[in-house]
Predict the structure.
Amino acid sequence: MRAWLPTALLSIAIGAIGQLLLKFAARGNGSLSLFGPGALSSLGRLATSPYLIAGLVCFVSSMLLWVKVLGTAPLATAYPLVSLGYVLVALLSWILLGERVNPHQALAIGVIMLGVFMLGRG
């Protein structure tokens, strides 16, 4: 096994969790107003959301781990693994948020997984 692979997978998983945390922040903030009346209070609520802060921590952590991966892994091999984040976000969204995955999305997720598998074999 490639020594950098567990770190890459951890980075991808943390990034996917960060996406879910941002979704929770958006849902908990109601309608986000970026312009006009109420924009400052809306942005203030969002900026102090624990979900937003945790999501940002996840993204920074994911990025630092990814930089570690790039120190040893060939970019052409490692970078396609990032697409596993799409798969993980779809799965977690289905499980934790009750979002639906239609047959076309399921097929696309399968194609992504097949592509990552094929790249790993090469």
DSSP finds six helices and no strands in the chain.
